[in-house]
Amino acid sequence: MKGFILVAHGSRRATANEEIAGFAQRMTAAMKGGFDLTGYGFWELAEPSLGQVIDAQVAAGARDITLFPYFLAEGKHVVNDLPSVLAEKKAQYPGVKLTQLPHLGAIPGFDQWLAAQLQEDDEANS
């Protein structure tokens, strides 16, 4: 069974966390299959935590979990913290494959796509 988890920072503002939850649900609903379980986890300041979501997906039968860091830049959380949690969870669940995808800002073509969207919005509002 395959799982997918969007990992976001988390906020003290509940509405910001709800926005991430809604985005994750819409994004995973738009994905064309491939994942039996989908979810989101927060790095800090909110729940569910990444560790809680990994634990829940493993308990539900996931044996291959892909994590998508919803971070624009390659900061401390992407470079150090997420790989550290993955190493801990790999030791805890040796039969589970855990894979970290590139963060949002590193997706090839993301910058061009965003530029096109912003230009479209600007032209529509002119």
Describe it for me?
This protein is of the alpha/beta class. The chain has a single domain (2-124), classed as Rossmann fold (3-Layer(aba) Sandwich). Helices cover 47% and strands 18% of the residues. It contains four helices and four strands; from the N terminus they run βαβαβαβα. The protein has helices at 14-30, 50-59, 76-92, 110-124; strands spanning 2-8, 37-42, 64-69, 97-100. Strands 2-1-3-4 form a four-stranded parallel β-sheet, sandwiched between helices. It is globular and about 55 Å long. The protein starts with a strand and ends with a helix. The model has no long low-confidence stretch (mean pLDDT 94). This is Cobalamin biosynthesis protein CbiX. It comes from Oceanimonas doudoroffii. GO terms for molecular function: lyase activity; metal ion binding.
Précis, in short:
The protein has 126 residues and is α/β, with parallel strands linked by helices. It has helices at residues 14-30, 50-59, 76-92, 110-124; strands at 2-8, 37-42, 64-69, 97-100.
Structural class: alpha/beta
Helix residue percentage: 40-55%
Q: What is the makeup of the main sheet? A: 4 strands, parallel
User: Residue-averaged pLDDT, rounded?
Assistant: 94
Runs in which pLDDT lies below 50 for 5 or more consecutive residues are none
GO molecular function: lyase activity; metal ion binding
InterPro entries: CbiX-like (IPR002762), Sirohydro_Cobaltochel/CbiX (IPR050963)
Keywords: Lyase, Metal-binding
Protein name: Cobalamin biosynthesis protein CbiX
